[in-house]
Amino acid sequence: MSTTYDAAVDASSSPDDDEVAPPRRWRPLTLAAAVVAAVLLLTVAFGAGWFAQSRNHPGEGSVEAGFARDMSSHHAQAVEMSMLALNKSTQPDLRLLAGEIVQAQQAQIGMMQTWLRTWGLEPTGHERPMAWMKDGASLLQNGLMPGMASPADMTALRDATGPAFDRLYLRLMQQHHLGGIHMVEGLLAENHDPDVTWLAEAMAKGQRSELEFIQQILTKIGA
Amino acid sequence: MSISTPAGDSSRQTAPPAAKKAVAGAGRPPAARGGARSGGGSGGSGGSGNRPGGKGRPGGGGPRKPIKPVKVSQGRSWGPIALFTAVGVIAAAIIGYGVYAVTVGPQTWQEKAENISGISDFRTSDPKLYDTRSHKSGTIQYAQMPPVAGDHNVSWQNCMGNVYDAQIANENAVHSLEHGAVWVTYRPDLPKDQVDALAGKVEGQEFTMMSPFPGLDKAISLQAWGYQLKVDNASDSRIDEFIRALRVNASQEPGVGCSGGVTATGTTPRELQQQPQGQ
């Protein structure tokens, strides 16, 4: 080996340059490679962060996040009305229904809020209610989501007593569930998250059977 | 990995006092390293030149002496370059993620709140107040007006987007703040169009409520548990920022709602059973 080197050195001066030159030629090349590698890594790290935030989970402006936020508020009103029913009504079927609604919907609020935390999103958004749903804005009534009781409805419900309360509660709850199911359908048309689909379908099923129950109670109390 | 191993080799090889032979050995492996590097990185021009050096390594021996100095300089230059490259690449990765986290990554709600200019953050300025939350009956004295935290009545004010047209009891309102509500208060002389604008941000919006507050030093004051922001006009964009950052987030009891509270007005603290409601 050494002989080939010697021969090369003897043959001309250029191989000699080659032997001294590599460090000088390699340094800028290595630096360039390092810079390229650094830029690549920076891009990849940046991209990975963005990817992890926005792709693995539904993002800030997603249908899923909008649904989770809006349905939490929608459910909260059903809980409020049903708690009033538990405090005020003496009709056994209605009290059973109200208890079921309070338990199911408060638990579902917890699940939806947990999604938002898991997705790294705030419980509250920047958008108007229903902005996540196709033609959602057109479904708002005085700024309220489909089926929501107005402040005047809520005051009337608080003030009502006896059979009048029972009728008003059942009518308001009927509207509320119909609106809620409509929102679920809007979500299912665009959602791709299996967990969200699972819960939304359960909501629709549960509320449809409660709608039947409401109708039975209304018939029973002669409303 | 591939970088730390050659560094280990060279340090082991420079250690023996048999200087010249050791140096000769040290000179070669880096050359072989150079071949591996250039093959992986930027063209194979160095590969063929280095390979003979690599083959010569097991044979060892004296005949190589004349070339030693050249090889040594070549070897020395690769160690630091590899090291600096490794450090640089790792640093770049860390900086890259840092840049992501700062520029794009989500801010916490506390950071969002702190970034609102003019906000009073009692969470950091008065941690004792922030952690005071016992149930007490009767009138309670608060250091802030309107109050932002502290002991409170056992009943909370209903905060399901309720717009109250008269003053409400501080003792009930503070309990709503504990549940995560944003409480919007305004001086009663605020022009009606501004009152309506504020009501539009509150009505039907769960975890918010609104009421007039006589004696306010500014036209409008917003409260969340441990936070307060006072502004002069309902069109101030910081109002929305405050609500967005702190509604629900400021809750001291996550999961507890805003319904089932007192809906009556008046400054006397009310327990629910005293409420003139239903039966």
Write down the domain tally of chain A. 2
Number of distinct helices of chain A: 7
Q: Note the gap between the termini of chain A.
A: 106 Å
Quaternary status: heterodimer
| Integer-rounded radius of gyration of chain A | 32 Å
Estimated radius of gyration of chain B? 36 Å
Average pLDDT for all residues of chain B: 79
User: What is the element string of chain A, with H for helices and E for strands?
Assistant: HHHHHHH
- Strand residue percentage of chain B: 5-15%
Task: Provide the helix percentage of chain B.
Answer: 40-55%
Describe the structure.
The complex is a heterodimer of chains A (223) and B (279). With 223 residues, chain A is an all-alpha fold. Chain A folds into two domains: 2-52; 60-220, Ferritin (Up-down Bundle). Chain A has seven helices and no strands. Chain A has helices at 2-11, 13-54, 63-88, 92-118, 151-159, 162-188, 194-220. Chain A starts with a helix and ends with a helix. The model of chain A is unreliable at 1-17 (pLDDT under 50). Chain B contains ten helices and six strands. With 279 residues, chain B is of the alpha/beta class. Chain B is elongated. Chain B has helices at 4-14, 19-40, 45-59, 68-103, 109-114, 122-125, 127-130, 170-178, 192-202, 238-246; strands at 120-121, 160-163, 182-186, 208-212, 220-224, 227-231. In chain B, strands 1-6-5-3-4-2 form a six-stranded mixed beta sheet. In chain B, 46% of the residues lie in helices and 9% in strands. The interface between A and B is large, with 61 and 60 residues. Chain B: InterPro entries: DUF3105 (IPR021454). Chain B: The chain crosses the membrane at residues 81-100. Chain B: Keywords: Membrane, Transmembrane, Transmembrane helix.
